[in-house]
Amino acid sequence: MIPFSLSVVALVTFALALFVWRARPNSETNRSFALFILLGGFWIIGTAAAFRYDARPELWTRFTFAAASFLPAAFLAFARYYPTPSRWLTRRVVYFNFGVASLFAVISLTTNLIVSGAAMTPSGPTRDIGFAYPVFAAYFLIAWTLALAVFLAKSRGARGLARLQLHYLAAGFVISGAGGITMNLLVPLLTGDSRYSWIGPLFSLAFIALVAHAIIRHRLMDLRLVIHRGLTLAAAMLVSLLPVGVFITFAWPRLSLHLETPELVAVLAAIAAVSLLIPFVRDVTGRLLDRYVYRTHANYQRTVREASRALTRVLDLKRLLPFLTDTVATSTRSEGVAIYLRDRRGFRRAARDTRPMQGPFEAPDEAPGGAVTALDSTRDLLLTEEVMRDNPTAEQRRLHDELTRLNWALVLPLTSEDTVIGAIVLGPKLSGDPFYPQDLDLLMTLANQAGVAVKNAQLFAQVVLANEYINSIVATIESGVVAIDAGGQIALFNRAAAQLTGLRAEDTPGQPATMLPSCLRDALATSVAEGRALTQPEVELSDGTATRPIICTTSPLLDPAGTVLGAVAVFSDLTSLKELEKGRRRAERLAYFEMLASGIAHEIKNPLVAIKTFAQLLPRRHSDERFIEEFGRITAREIQRMERLLERLRTLSRPSDRPRQPLDLRLPVAEAVETMRAAFEDKNIGVTVATPTTPCVIRGDHAELGQLLLNLLLNAHEATPPGGTLRVELEATATHAIVAIRDTGPGVPAGLLDRVFEPFFSTKQRGSGLGLAICAAIAQTHDAKLKVANAPAGGAVFTIEFPLAVGASAPVSA
């Protein structure tokens, strides 16, 4: 009875070792634990054999000690790896322990130093210990204590589920180790009696029970699934053999009388084999018969699992649609499968299965309108054999006729966001069977997942196409384009950007934005940080060899929620534009000088003609006092006229370079109006002035501003008829002060608005035509803009826009 009991314990131990190893063969933890259990099984087998095979008890006793020598080493290896590898307990310590264990195993098998002899007695096997037995016992106790100490230390430091697992394992090691060491190591050492060594292996049952509990209830080493499958298989085998056992129990007396022992064993083995093989033979025969009659039993869970994995990974319609048709055709064994997708022209065929035609299944290029309308209205599957049920309407009859003509047995909608984007159509099953509810559940699950996958693939194709457009545009435009992500990494860098910055377009993407020139780097960082667009009208950009002016605009990249994802900068080289601008200015300057020279010649010629005429008459009329007086008066007048002309030209050509001081613009406006008030009253012109109550501080010269405003008021006085009105307005915005002078005169002809500020241009009979030109020059020296326009109600409006002074001190009084 003792050998049988120990053999059962050994078999259970071997089974546990096999389960542990098969669960994770590549895991150091599982391998070391399986080795420990396997060595324990050998130790138990050796103990059982010593009771059974009394002819050679010494051999099995030596085998038992050899197996036991490795138990502390295997325990220490497992303690090192579980649940996480120990840093201080190195592999060298483990290997050294295995070396010592190997030495003791060799000594046990080949010498009498540990076991000097063994014999079978009526009460069981006994052994004689050698003089090295105490050394072996000391090694075993020290190594086992060390491994147990490492294990308990890890148990104290663990938390949660790992700590609970360690507690169960530690309890098993302590109980089994205490029982085995006491009965098989210490008792023989202290008393010299080894007759009770069979009790030690029985303590392994406690260890196995605790480990099994930790596996089943607390997922020890992820073995629960393996144990569950093994137990399920064992239970199924027992249930299958139960009727055989009942039959043998009742038929055993007769069978034992008529059959010899070998024949009886063969019959029992055959009956057991047939009982176990019936389920397997039934399944194989059923699959072969189903294949012959075109039936299929789809593994719904596996089909859905594999389809879900593929549908979530494939974004290419050219790969996705063939996979769908093949999956549906394989799982249903229908006469044909086709997929239709909606586009601007309707439902167009996008794919069909590539199997040879096995029936009159048709897949036209465009789906029939009746089926499309039915899918749009119901958003549910169409089963041809159910269309005509429950008092069909004329529309349902037409739909049934269309589906029957095409040999379509089932139409599945592909939906996305509650919109039908396509359909999967199936022909009848080759076996002639209908589509059962489980088939429809499987197909609708596939269709629902396929709808989302197809929509994602279509959107992905649109994104790819849009990216191709963008990349083509970005690669061909002459402006530089640089984009960065929120982390400051360069995501886009086109060819023009490489040319303008001197960086390599191939090496720049993926690099930090810090490698960009400062004007680009700072602008992009500001757009990312502040989430707003920035424009730099003109900055200097260097490519390492030359510096060029550029215009740069940066914009943040935002997602629908407004989160900043990055920024993009678009910058253009202004060098050519600057050259064109210089050329234009040069041409304008030449034209200006030509016009100015012509005007000067014309203005000086008139007084010179008068002086020349008098000078030619002077020799003949030098005695005529009246002529001499008239000559002197006219000559002096014309010379003064030329002097005034030259003075105005000097003002026009070189405005005052006096320093600009902060001043309140209300003062020169008020003074100019006050100076002209008498002239306005003489002409009966009503004057109104509107100025703000707060100062409008600009930087300028008080005298020049006074001349500017006087010239504009004088111009308005001359243009306004008697009885008219004049309005002077001063207003301030956030950045500018604006003066507007509105008269009720005839205005300026629309075709001449662009020429009123040209020198020597005038619409009046009298005057030099330099007044407004001088006004424009003074405005330009003050960084102001002088404009003229015609009011809708009549008259002209002259507007001067001054920049407000920033950070100026108190304004200077006149």
Give the helices and strands, then pairings.
Layout: H1 2-23, H2 28-52, H3 57-69, H4 71-81, H5 91-110, E1 115-121, E2 124-129, H6 133-157, H7 160-191, H8 199-202, H9 204-218, H10 224-258, H11 261-292, H12 300-311, H13 317-332, E3 337-343, E4 346-352, H14 369-378, E5 382-383, H15 384-387, H16 394-406, E6 410-416, E7 419-426, H17 437-476, E8 480-485, E9 490-493, H18 495-501, H19 518-530, E10 534-542, E11 547-558, E12 564-573, H20 575-617, H21 625-653, E13 661-664, H22 666-682, E14 686-690, E15 697-700, H23 702-719, E16 725-732, E17 736-743, H24 771-781, E18 785-790, E19 796-803
Helix pairs in contact: 1-2, 1-10, 2-3, 2-4, 3-5, 4-5, 4-6, 6-7, 7-9, 10-11, 12-13, 12-17, 13-17, 20-21, 21-24, 22-23, 23-24
What would you note in describing this structure?
With 814 residues, the chain is an alpha+beta fold. It has six domains: 2-222, Rhodopsin 7-helix transmembrane proteins (Rhopdopsin 7-helix transmembrane proteins, Up-down Bundle), CATH 1.20.1070.10; 231-292, no CATH class; 300-462, Beta-Lactamase (2-Layer Sandwich); 477-573, PAS domain (Beta-Lactamase); 579-653, Orthogonal Bundle (Helix Hairpins); 661-803, 2-Layer Sandwich (Heat Shock Protein 90). 57% of the residues lie in helices and 16% in strands. The protein has 24 helices and 19 strands. A five-stranded antiparallel sheet has the order 4-3-7-6-5, sandwiched between helices. Strands 9-8-12-11-10 form a five-stranded antiparallel sheet. α2 runs antiparallel to α4 (71-81) and α13 (317-332) runs antiparallel to α17. The longest helix is centred in the C-terminal third of the chain and has 43 residues, at 575-617. It is elongated, with a radius of gyration of 54 Å. The protein starts with a helix and ends in an 11-residue tail after the last strand. Mean pLDDT is 79; it is low at 221-228.
